[in-house]
Amino acid sequence: MERLEQPTKLLAQFAAGELEAFETLFRQFQGEVFRWIVRIVRDPAAAEDLTVETFWKIYRARARFQPERSFGAWARRIATNVALDYLKTARPWEEQFAASMPPESAPDLRESSPANPGIQNPAVRRELRERTQLAFQQLPAQLRAVAVLALIEECPHAEIAEALSISTAAVKSRLFRAVRLLRNKLGNLDTSHD
Amino acid sequence: MTEQKKADQEMTEPEMSKPEMNEPEQKKFADLLKQSLPPTNWELDRDLWPKMLQRLDHDARPRKWFAVLFSPAALAAVPWFDWALLAVLIVGVCLSPRSIPVWLYHF
């Protein structure tokens, strides 16, 4: 999310509860908040609702906002918490199938990993994609958010740490645990130590 | 300290050297995830301000008395001792239904 510097006067008016100031900030930041949320939840319809939810929380917490601080960073932290709450409560349909999928049906990932393009069979590739999606959906919300931002969206660790209000070491730790869980669910990939 | 914070600090030296921490290993999983869940490029295609106004109006609307009285926040604010008294009262009434008129008289 790019940092748009806001006039302190506008932010002070917002903190005082002026609806016009809130509208100005809303119109300016709604797109950025939406883009941030949709990166985490990966569902544009849900992201729209969560954007409104985020700004509703922002408006309710306006008295605690310090006008000399960055509105964008504050909004992103709230948006991240709202998105994480959504991930914790939402149960996508894929999860229901994940539990019922027998482990024997797992394809041999040693042969079909991206590092090893030996498998040309589209059916196996499709199954690999589906299993990866299922494994990803089963990650705890905190780990899923870090994994999606770091591994898929390639956000810098410092940016993720700021949004989650944690240290960069904690981001690395969560990333480590996310990869470990994915590895356990998907089976060993073709790694150099094997 | 919360469980999450504990877990965040629990990465030890041996864990740091595990294959999951290797960049090639993480890149492999990143490639796998990108194939399965491509990066998002969705943009907001409509103004959400009308929806926001609806939400603010809904929030500002006066709530019905029972919704306020029995809201989770109101129920959570009741001291445990009052719940205990209520439980004693209910048990007493169940054990001795004839005492109901006495209770009603006192209330």
Describe the structure.
The complex is a heterodimer of chains A (194) and B (107). Chain A has two domains: 82 residues, Rna Polymerase Sigma Factor, Chain: A, CATH 1.10.1740; 87 residues, Winged helix-like DNA-binding domain superfamily/Winged helix DNA-binding domain (Arc Repressor Mutant, subunit A, Orthogonal Bundle). Chain A is built from ten helices and no strands. The longest helix of chain A has 23 residues. Chain A is elongated and about 60 Å long. The two termini of chain A are 40 Å apart. Chain B has a domain of 34 residues. The longest helix of chain B is centred in the last third of the chain and has 16 residues. Chain B is elongated. The two termini of chain B are 46 Å apart.
H-E string of chain B = HHHHHHHH
Instruction: Please outline the major beta sheet of chain A.
Output: none
- Number of contiguous helices of chain B: 8
Number of strands of chain A: 0
Specify the CATH homologous superfamily of the largest domain in chain A: Winged helix-like DNA-binding domain superfamily/Winged helix DNA-binding domain
- Topology, number of strands of chain B: 0
Major β-sheet annotation of chain B? none
Assign a percent range to the helix content of chain B: 55-70%
Structure annotation, total helices of chain A: 10
What fraction of the residues of chain B are assigned to beta strands by DSSP?
under 5%
List the topology elements.
The complex is a heterodimer of chains A (194) and B (107).
Chain A: H1 8-15, H2 19-41, H3 44-60, H4 71-89, H5 93-100, H6 109-112, H7 122-137, H8 141-152, H9 157-164, H10 168-186
Chain B: H1 3-9, H2 13-16, H3 23-36, H4 49-60, H5 65-69, H6 72-76, H7 80-95, H8 100-106
